[in-house]
Amino acid sequence: MDPERVQERNEELVRLLHLTARGDQQAFARLYELTSPTLFAVCLRMLVRREWAEEALQEAYVKVWHKAGDYNASRGNVLTWLVSIARYLAIDVRRARGRRPEAPLSDEDMGRITDDDAGPMEQFLAQDDAAALQRCLDELSDTQRQTITLAFFQGLTHHELSSRLKRPLGTVKSWIRRGLEGLKQCLQG
User: Fold this and answer.
1) Residue 35: which of 1, 5, 60 has the closest Cα?
2) Overall domain count for the chain
3) From 64, 108, 119, 139, which residue has the greatest number of CB atoms within 10 Å?
4) Calpha distance 69→161 (Å, rounded)
């Protein structure tokens, strides 16, 4: 996705988020329509079970409705903020269920996931976003890509990553931070 289009899309999401903060239900519905396929994919990738992912997604949008006014553009774009909310709520759902899902979904399975309510344009934009994200992930170092994938797509916490990778917590956090900075630079052009 070219940087100009990313900027235009983010400006539209910022506008919708500001209207949502003022209680505009139509703006909130449009925000949901534009972003829910991406957030659902994140939740499903982390939780595997569709019903768990739906629960996390619902909780995420309830939180967005109540916290829309808290969005700070200096800390990232709207979609990044929304994905962060969905990710943390997916982790909460997983903890509440008391166990991890059986196995993470493969990239092939993720490619088959569609939101029945998403129109062709939304599906195209979601595919375009996914392609840009994959291209930028491929530009990261192996350790950065691995930690970001495990943290954001499989829902591992920093502590779980530290244990799994047998590395100090600070090192894992640094890899994630540097990887996210690299993704941000790559995605912004």
Assistant:
1) 60
2) 1
3) 64
4) 32
**CB-CB contact of 164 with 150 (8 Å):** yes
Domain of 56: which CATH number? 1.10.1740.10
CB 141 within 8 A of CB 151: no
Cα–Cα dist 83/71, whole Å? 13
178 vs 184: CA distance, rounded Å = 10
Q: Structural domain of residue 15, as residue ranges? A: 3-102
For the segment 89-139, what is each residue's pLDDT rounded down to a tens digit? 998 898 888 755 555 545 555 454 444 444 443 444 455 666 777 888 889
Task: Tell the residue number behind the tokens 């344009």, with chain if given.
Answer: 121
Phi, psi for 163 (deg, rounded to 5): -65, -45
pTM reported for the whole predicted model: 0.61
